[in-house]
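chain below, 241 aa
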Amino acid sequence: MAIFDVHAEIGTTPLWGVPFTEANLIRSMQKYGVERCIVSSTIANSCDFRRGNALIARVVKANPALLGCVVVNINYPEQSQQDMHAYLPDDSFAGILLTSGVRGRHVTLAEAEEILNAHRRFVKPVFVHTPNQAALLAANEMAKAFNTLKFVLLSMGGDDWRMATMLADRTLNLVLEISGSFSPDKIKFAVDHIGSHRIVYGSGLPYTDPSSIIGLVEDAEISDVDKRNILEQSAKRLLRT
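prediction:
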């Protein structure tokens, strides 16, 4: 079964200070049968979003199996919009990833409103880190305010995956990405409540083990069609590929 990974990063990791390179990512993709992957930069997500975005632009241009994600920093709305206009018209970029510039600190509607207003013209998904309940509620508020955009909840709320699912049940432009908690119950719970067509696979590389996330899907008591949706088809529909 082919896999489409919507959530990976390359670059030097803040946790370990060692590089997870494009070559490392490609080897991982080959190992797990991942045909396409949306990638952002660890540098962009932490200290220098413009340098990180430029790096990703070079990487995706050289490798058609990879799609870029433009990291936009709510503290620099003007520069963020410049990067959006520079990269998003290109089909090799899949959408934007909202960041506060501080790993673990979520983004709010008030902080992101200017950038999201500018992003509406591109009609590409918005990726948001949602490791916990507070981040989920903030992302849900953004999704309700900008209901023509798709918002992908990266990590699916972590241990708060039930809340993520129930929010998505009511806010129809939310999409759940399944990295985060390794609870064996969350995949079937989400499929039962919102359907597999609004659930996508993300590895969370280099911070998580892809085999664990893939195993959650493969071991879930759902149909083969649902598994195929989560691992590949839902992402293709999200990106209209």
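The first helix runs from residue 22 to 32. Residues 12 and 24 are 12 Å apart (CA to CA).
thats it, cya
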